[in-house]
Design brief:
Shape: elongated
Helix content: 55-70%
Largest sheet: 6 strands, antiparallel
Number of strands: 19
Distance between the termini: 107 Å
Strand content: 5-15%
Strand order of the largest sheet: 4-3-6-7-5-8
Length: 824
Amino acid sequence: MRVDGTLITPERIRAVLLRSERDTSGDRTARLTVGDVAHVDFGHKRPTMVLRSLGDPAISLSLLAETGTNVMTTMDRVRNTINEMNATILPRQGLHLRLVYDQTDYVKNAINLVVQNIYIGGALAALILFIFLRSVPATLVVSLAIPISVIGTFVGMNILGRSLNVISLAGLAFAVGMVVDAAIVVLENIFRHREDGLSRAQAAETGARQVCGAVLVSSLTTIVVFIPLLMMKQETGQLFRDIAVAIAVSVGLSMVVAITVIPVLARRLLGPVNSMRKPLSLPFLDAFGTAFSDRLNRRITHITASRKASGLTILIITTASIAVSVLLMPKLEYLPEGNRNMAFGSVRPPPGYNLKTTMSVAERIETAVRPLWARDTGRESPPGTPPKIESFSFNAFESGYIEVMATAVDPSRVAELIPVMRAPIFDEPGTYGFMSQPSLFSRRSGSARAISVEVSGDDLESIAAVARRLAATIESVFPRRAGFQLQPRPGLELGAPEVRLFPDPVRLRDAGVSAKDFAHAIDVFNDGMRVVEVNVGNQRIDLTLKGPDNAQEATQDIAKLPVVTPSGTVVQAKSLADIEVTEGPTEIRHIEGRRTITLQIRPPTSVALQTTIERLKAEVIDPIAQDHLPEGIRITISGVASKLADTWSEMTWQLGISAVVVYLIMAALFESVLYPLIIMATLPMASAGALACLGVLNLFVYTPLDMLTVLGFVILIGIVVNNAILLVHQSLFLARKRNLPMAEAVAIATRTRIRPIFMSTLTSLFGMAPLVLFPGAGSELYRGLGAVVLGGLTLSTFLTLLVIPALMCLVEPLSLKKHTGKAA
């Protein structure tokens, strides 16, 4: 049995009994129902926002993938669902569902570019190997290390729970040139012994055994520099882990391949001795290589001839490297934003704007960009004009807030739409707004480069006064015409106009009306009062009690709103309350329990965050803070500024820890605390080369020193020492095992190791070069990192061949004293 008294139809609502009186004399009953005093019908709520897409009314849906889901697979299913809905149920309602933005398009293009770079880099690395080895079998032996390491890396990353994404694939692309380093050293040594007349088996065994220790240490130094990065807790740690795991796993596998697979393949594939002594001739390259090698050997002989020459060489190169590093050190950025095909803006008109006025501001933006709509004016844009717009939409909210979004027909030029969309915003006095490309690493527009200045305290008026002073100074120091953007949260005014009613307790008591009933009466005649939620079919609908639409057309009409007393008397609101037109805050923000107004500053992409932060402190905050702030008011910098400071502090620690770990591993190999210091002396040279290359790249493409680019310096710590390890290891072998003087041992070591050094360096450089040189989606993420590695590795390779021999000869007395002491 079920009793059904729900209000599911207008008839039932009309029949609700409000009052009943019985006439005792006539035995009659008078009843008053809702239908007697009100109109009951279905209707619509007053809109609180308006959305338009390319000028047409629209409804927007946002889809956010859950953590751990495959975005590419999810979006394929979304597209299939959209196509199915457009073919079945939506046409019946006269609707069409359109996908206006899909982030996976950018991801697909970025992945395709990285994969292309992997193929090109691998091919270039193989070409360099062939130019040096002049043997197809020998080139094939080393080149096999690339697919074996890459495929093995996929397995290793899956075991470690890492996904393939743009960052991890970029790490794999960097590793393509690095995975052949160990194989080159092993094969070149085998190749040299084969040229000296040893049999295949003897050459493979002797050659691999001689360099096994150096290969092990050089690979370990590349791997261990990433271990501290795996422990980073900042959000950048996630990005670092992806690229660190990709490079570390691939280099680790390449080491195993070098000491196991390469000797076996060399024994099987290397040809007869006679064929190896008559290699393919490349006249120009052979002449250049011979001349370079001879001149380098003469220079090394001159340097190692006296300790004075050695010391002077070291002093000049080291001083110049440090000076170049200091002079070329750019200001820091946090994270690259990427180049997503979206221009997104948030606009805040002055407080008090209603929906109609707010919408007029949005319509001005719509009017400014309408000539660029590809739907109306075609997809081709004339030279010198902004790109055509594929989609454009805006949301105007009753609360006085606007969101604007546009995508370009040419995804690479979407940034050119930002000035066009920004221009109309500031035609409305007191309007603030951000317009930018959303970062790949943030779901909030502009937040990736937004510096927050927080003014906090207890008194809202004092907070607002200080915030207005700050805003005025910020707009003077960082002008809008220079590309800086400012947005306060909430507004700088105390609030929007509002009408306050103060009920008089005595008059309410005399009328028999409670304060709650009085408030309900005013609410009914204002926006309407929600009574209950009712079920109608499969929908839940608000049952709203509402006065006539024309009950108030001006603030003065509020005083005349009717209030019904229990006795049935109708009185005006002004007879029960005092009415005041004043202002009130539209939003009160609390941060750490204190009232706060936040000023967000976004610099243009051409100005580094660190530069903006330093100027903000020196030219804005410090002068105002020194000018007697009101008691209890505090000004702090937060947002991306604090993230940058924390990440940079952690990165400097990681760089130091990585250098210490590399030193300890080399100390274990050489059984010495001195020779690892000699090898570590190559790091300043790598830093100078890295910053010089980054500076040259900025002449063509703006590439800031962001935290991903700083990762390149960590990679350099692990790879620039490899060439020095080969020289020191071979020099000590000749000096200790064959009792050669150190100067002669260094000269022979340089002569015998110059070919594998340049082979491994050039394969690494050409393997990474496509990541720096080829533009496209995603290249802005790793271009700076690649430039740092390329520049650092190039300069350090040349200078290592001069500095290491000089240092070895300079510290020879200390080394001899140490060994003599041990013998005694």
